[in-house]
Specification:
With 249 residues, the protein is α+β, with helices and mostly antiparallel strands. It contains 6 helices and 12 strands.
């Protein structure tokens, strides 16, 4: 399984993904799921992938090949919407192709993508692309997308996200969301890849990889756990019926 998150903020875009893939709990591997392409001072695209590995690798390969062509479509798209259309079509084609020779196998080859980026002269955009190739765009009402094992980290994002959060706080939010997912699901695992893109930069920005023993990740994880424990104990207490009749209370 996978867990990937893309967030749209007033300051730019933030991405994070795990690197674990599995064909059962006894067959675990690591594969990169965060990819970036750019042309200096003109455009930058970032892709997160979850689902069938053969499908996602084929889509990434198509994007790589197109980006190397001087007359490739991605280098000539006028908007991020056009980029999302191209990537969505590639995903649809690969799912269909890989499923053609198998009976009822379409679901086996399905994958989902998060695409974000910016083309000079327009605002940063974020899209969730479905296996069928269609997609939706992030807005202030729907500012983040998740793919893969989303349920454990979603409550953190829903409660903690604000449009005016600084990128430093957005990064904390991502770490806490992933920390919750890692603790709850063994099919999501380290290392974690991330990228922080600042509006109008048209270059990758801050990017890197967090390992399990990364000091900053460990500090945030421990502080979050301790904070939750302290908050739980400080919440208003309910008077239980047995306590009402207990003269010692």
């Amino acid at each position: 399984m996978s867990y990937c998150v893309g967030i749209l903020t007033k300051f730019g875009l933030a991405f994070m993904s795990d690197t674990r893939t599995n064909a059962g709990l006894d067959d675990l591997s690591q594969f990169k799921k965060l990819f970036t392409w750019g042309r200096s001072d003109d455009r930058l695209f970032t892709l997160l992938s979850a689902g069938n590995l053969a499908t996602t690798q084929a889509v990434v390969s198509e994007i790589e090949q197109d980006f190397k062509k001087s007359k490739g479509r991605l280098l000539n798209c006028k908007s991020m919407f056009e980029v999302a259309e191209f990537v969505g079509q590639q995903l649809h084609n690969k799912v269909k192709k890989h499923s053609e020779n198998e009976i009822n196998a379409e679901s086996t080859f399905k994958a989902s993508l998060i695409l974000g980026g910016q083309i000079k002269g327009s605002k940063p955009s974020l899209f969730l692309i479905y296996p069928e190739g269609n997609f939706i765009e992030a807005t202030e009402d729907t500012p983040f997308f998740q793919i893969g094992e989303i349920k454990y980290g979603r409550p953190i994002l829903v409660r903690g996200y604000r449009h005016d959060l600084s990128m430093k706080d957005i990064f904390k939010l991502l770490i806490v969301s992933f920390d919750s997912t890692l603790k709850a699901n063994l099919t999501v695992g380290f290392p974690l890849d991330f990228q922080i893109y600042f509006i109008d930069a048209l270059e990758p920005g801050v990017a890197g990889r967090l390992k399990e023993n990364d000091p900053y990740f460990v500090d945030v994880s421990n502080a979050w756990s301790k904070g939750l424990e302290d908050l739980l104990l400080s919440l208003p207490a309910l008077t239980l019926r047995s306590e009402e009749n207990d003269p010692a209370k």
